[in-house]
Amino acid sequence: MEKEKIGGGLAGFIMASVMFANILIIGFYMGSERDVWISLLLSLTLVIPLILIYARLTRLMPGMDIYGMAKAAFGKIGAGIVAFAFGFYCLHLASLTLGNYSEFIHLTALFKTPFIVIALGFFVVCIYIVQSGIQTLGKWSALTSVIGLAVLIIITALSTGQMDFSRLLPVMDDGFGEITVGALRAVPLHFGDAVVTLTLIGGLKSKKSPKSIYIISTVAVALILILIFIRNCTLMGTAMVKSAFFPTYKSVSLIKVSYFLERIESVLFLVYITLGMTKISVCIIGAAKGAATLFRLPSYKAMTVPVGFIAFALSSNLFHNIDQMFNFLEVYNYYALIFQVLIPVALWITAEVKHAAQKRKSLGSYQNEKLNSA
Q1: At how many degrees (to 10) do helices 265-295 and 304-315 cross?
Q2: Does 88 map to a domain?
Q3: Do residues 75 and 216 lie in contact, with contact meaning Cβ atoms separated by under 8 Å?
Q4: How many folded domains does the chain comprise?
Q5: CATH no. for residue 186?
Q6: Of residues 33 and 308, which shows the higher confidence score?
Q7: CA–CA separation, 353 and 324 (whole Å)
Q8: pLDDT (tens digit, 9 = 90+) per residue, 116-165?
Q9: Residue 266 covered by a domain
Q10: How many whole angstroms separate alpha carbon 215 and alpha carbon 220?
Q11: CA angle 28, 30, 33 (to 5 degrees)
């Protein structure tokens, strides 16, 4: 299979985009109310070890994506199982994200446009990005991330006059148990989807571990999420944040600057859609690579259109209404851990064992050569 190269910085932007893409749609679906920001800080301490495992895998098996890692660690049969399971996860996540964003656009902006037409538009753009290559995807994510951050800062600055920080009080009112549950929910919902970037790791230009880049991306996303929650809560109050389907979009729609600047949520709307396209594109690449591994194809690009079309078809059939879409998040909290935690940890442990054995073998061979030469 061909290897496209991408810089570590662009990989960091892709990871950040994938983690951040959920916030517009699902908001802070974590249980706790005004203490969500504490839950996010706690979840950061939980997810950093997981991110370090992802980075360590790239150090132990440089030049390999997750499918190559599975073959090196588990052999052909194990690699086939991982390719099927992880490819399915990427396909399912692509269809979920495509469906969620299409439903959001349908309900908030284009309610007279059929859902399938909106989803088709996403499908066409994402397939174009994927076919353009991983390098193009990286540049696209970098551009949209920088613009998105600038828009977020400007919008937050414009909203300061309407913020009521008393809505964040009292601190720790939810109780430590509820805050902990919120932190555990945040890991798969807001951070764990970054595991799909392991399908791109084989294309990193540098063989050095991208540990620092991954940590910076994760911490940056956590801080941005905290900023967004504080803005949402101080503008709307915890009751409305918890009850609204799209609280981030709703909070921005409340911002008014004098009498000449309104409806600025349209700008945020466009920016977040581009981040959603990044996540869908990464998931399509991951699923296509899984399919290419199973069918032993020389190029994953031959599978991008079929995989994308399946994701497009599934997106309109996964849920019958928006309530089902949000109710599925309870299931996703557990289902996603198989792919976000179980498979990477199993790969990491196996790789560490094989690396240690190879190191001992190399050391033994060196000592034997030294004794023979003496």
Answers
A1: 130
A2: yes
A3: no
A4: 1
A5: 1.10.4160.10
A6: 308
A7: 43
A8: 999 999 999 999 999 999 989 999 999 999 988 888 888 888 888 889 99
A9: yes
A10: 8
A11: 80
User: How far is Cα 147 from Cα 167, in angstroms, rounded to an integer?
Assistant: 29
Q: Which amino acid is at 176?
A: F
In contact, 21 and 275? CB cutoff 8 Å: yes
Structure tokens at 277: 């396209």
pLDDT digits (tens, 9 = 90+) for 40-87: 999 999 999 999 999 999 888 888 899 999 999 999 999 999 999 999
pLDDT tens for 189-248 read: 889 999 999 998 765 666 666 888 899 999 999 999 999 989 989 998 887 887 777 888
Q: How far is CA 341 from the centre of its chain?
A: 14
Would you say 106 and 263 are in contact if contact means Cβ atoms under 8 Å apart?
Answer: no
Confidence of residue 304 (pLDDT cuts 50, 70, 90): very high
Q: How far is CA 232 from CA 79, 105, 154, 242, 248, in A?
A: 44, 20, 15, 10, 6
CA-to-CA distance for 225 and 75, rounded, in angstroms?
A: 40
Dist CA 38 CA 177 (whole Å): 12
Question: Domain limits at 102?
Answer: 8-366
Within a domain: 133: yes
CA distance 209 to 320: 43
Residue 374 lies in a domain: no
| Spatial separation of the C-alpha atoms in residues 245 and 16, rounded to whole Å | 23
